[in-house]
């Protein structure tokens, strides 16, 4: 991932121009550069880049942003220039608001991320950006590195990112920030009363586990719970090949909370942080849990398994119950949980659930500010009946196909009662097609919005907690 350039003095200017402002911009250039702009037919189309000559070399560049009316469609537009500029230091020469400057700086850094496992191929060094005036470089670097950590964990193939490797990633993160990690693994999960995490992972030869990371000695307690299904075959309710192809990303919730944890710890946010990762591989073998099984959870609630492909809520339930026993001020779960969420809002929006209107407002405002779009979904109480089967307390996969994301969230809420506030993110964790600063592949969702909202939600900004 890229870093900021050390100084602005030798940095070449990058101009950002909307189509409506092109003639004014051309008039501000020296005659030779303005003539070059016209001769090249530059129209300031979205993502159009033109290098500006100076003394036989490159003196600067201009990036087109398209029509001003389409500004709301664009996110991280500055990133479009990164791969088309020559190496060296650059600075953004166009005046920006503080929010625009932060977005541009983050976009540049995120555009430097790449992932390849091709032999003999090393990523090229991207051009460096001099941090725009007023931007907190350390904070933006922490956000970018947290997001890149999430991407890298998701993008790593499942044979290289199993429970052992995900545990190692959590331990590396803890070591970097002086945090502590405890792990409960294999049959020890039964002794420690995590029966559903064990049931989901017992068919794999890669042992399931619960990873418990702690950091910070004072302040409100924030507990993050991330779904860590390192690969999901669907279990005995086997997925078709078309649905199994992306299941290396089913640990995207764990990847997202680890990325968020990095942001929090790297910026020394004044809180106590706990990260719980229930990790398992939903495999098929003789010991696999079965459709029709009734499992008893850590919370004592019984769960009828009507689909082994709805395993994520099972492992999360045990972790949420455990986290709730400590009565955190805020508990957040993040999971690539349902296809219903993707159908409802597409791959770009991160739907979230909360019972607090003020918390929802803080999250929505933060998501808009930092260009990490989130969308509130309802804990619709009348749907509670859908998750109550005839022979157990709860059903992990209600029949009928309606409101799949909502019923999953309601299921999880049954286990999160110990927290003062509970919020659930049902993320996709994947960028289907490349976009500015977002290559196709693993993607963080909701973490930057939550990071920006936490000071308001927890009262860290001096206001009353929501």
From TrEMBL:
SUPFAM superfamilies: Zn-dependent exopeptidases
Keyword Membrane: no
Gene Ontology cellular component list: cytoplasm
Keywords for the protein's UniProt record, in alphabetical order: Aminopeptidase, Hydrolase, Manganese, Protease
Domain of life of the organism encoding this protein: Bacteria
GO molecular function, one term: manganese ion binding
Domain Cytosol aminopeptidase, residue spans: 307-314
Coiled coil: none
Keyword Oxidoreductase: no
InterPro entries with a match to the protein in the record: Leucine_aapep/pepB, Macro_dom-like, Peptidase_M17_C, Peptidase_M17_N_1
Biological process terms in GO annotation: proteolysis
One Pfam family in the UniProt entry: Peptidase_M17
Recorded family membership: Belongs to the peptidase M17 family.
Protein name: Leucyl aminopeptidase family protein
Organism: Mangrovicoccus algicola
